[in-house]
């Protein structure tokens, strides 16, 4: 039960991080996406550091949850991040959530519940996968990340919907990378009963750091490329799906097969469709208008424009 609570708290911390970091990056030039200078610009903004501290807190809570719970259960619970993010974003960006957004949230919640219920993931009794399986899994995971990034890069930011497509694609890439980071984290924390020294001796701990840095870079690019509502669904939903696959593949966590796969796939499809509907929300225009208003507002202490 403790792992469930820690996972929910981690989701709340991640939601706060997404909103704060989106607020910090939304007025930066679009051409900064996927470039190191984006991070250099963000480092000068205190609100971004507040978001970064929330990310660290989320990682700590997630690691504690994975130390006592299975990957296939803990990561899907993090989908709670999405509705919390929407609620926080509606407050911070002064954008009202309408029926469309609420129905999408309900659809994602029901889809996730169906996915977890019918697959019924549980901790396995087998040993952790060896080097060959890790190599194949990591390679496949990274190929998906690269494909998502490339698909997003092909969308011109200046075209209608281009920014939303880039944000959504980069969000999926970041979510898949965070799923891989969680798999490394689980591999390291599975040795927690042997002591801190055993955890520090695992190669997964250092792979987790490298994977986490890349995931953070992709996250900043997603939050900067477009509206938060466009970036968040792919980010939030791809993470638990990848985690379930990793739990079954690398840690022998058991999921139900047979006819249970059909409603589980239907639940996943409902989650995906709800996310697509959400990325087409009219609230996208609402935040873009707010960004333009911010750009037109003179900074404190600066002379007013001539009348």
UniProtKB/TrEMBL annotation:
This is DMT family transporter. Keywords: Membrane, Transmembrane, Transmembrane helix. The chain crosses the membrane at residues 46-67, 73-95, 102-119, 131-151, 205-223, 235-252, 258-278. It comes from the Bacteria. NCBIfam families: DMT_1. It comes from Streptomyces olivaceiscleroticus. The keyword Membrane applies. The keyword Manganese does not apply.
């Amino acid at each position: 039960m403790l792992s469930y609570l820690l996972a929910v708290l981690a989701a709340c911390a991640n939601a706060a991080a997404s909103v704060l970091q989106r607020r910090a990056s939304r007025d930066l030039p679009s051409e900064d996406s996927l470039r190191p200078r984006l991070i250099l610009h963000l480092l000068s903004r205190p609100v971004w550091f507040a978001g970064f501290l929330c990310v660290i807190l989320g990682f700590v809570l997630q690691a504690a949850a994975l130390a006592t719970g299975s990957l296939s259960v803990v990561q899907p619970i993090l989908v709670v991040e999405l509705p919390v993010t929407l609620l926080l974003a509606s407050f911070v960006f002064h954008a009202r959530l309408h029926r469309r957004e609420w129905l999408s949230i309900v659809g994602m919640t029901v889809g996730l519940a169906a996915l977890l219920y019918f697959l019924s993931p549980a901790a396995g009794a087998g040993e952790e996968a060896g080097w060959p399986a890790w190599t194949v899994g990591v390679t496949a995971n990274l190929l998906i990340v690269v494909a998502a990034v490339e698909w997003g890069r092909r969308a011109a930011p200046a075209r209608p919907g281009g920014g939303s497509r880039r944000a959504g694609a980069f969000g999926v890439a970041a979510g898949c990378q965070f799923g891989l980071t969680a798999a490394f984290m689980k591999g390291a924390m599975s040795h927690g009963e042997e002591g801190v020294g055993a955890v520090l001796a695992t190669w997964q701990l250092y792979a987790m750091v490298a994977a986490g840095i890349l995931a953070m870079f992709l996250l900043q690019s997603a939050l900067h490329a477009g509206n938060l509502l466009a970036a968040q669904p792919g980010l939030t939903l791809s993470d638990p799906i990848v985690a379930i696959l990793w739990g079954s593949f690398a840690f022998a966590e058991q999921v139900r097969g047979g006819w249970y796969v059909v409603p589980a796939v239907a639940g996943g499809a409902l989650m995906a469709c709800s996310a697509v509907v959400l990325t087409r929300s009219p609230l996208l225009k609402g935040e873009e208008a707010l960004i333009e208003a911010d750009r037109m507002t003179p900074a404190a202490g600066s002379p007013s424009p001539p009348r």
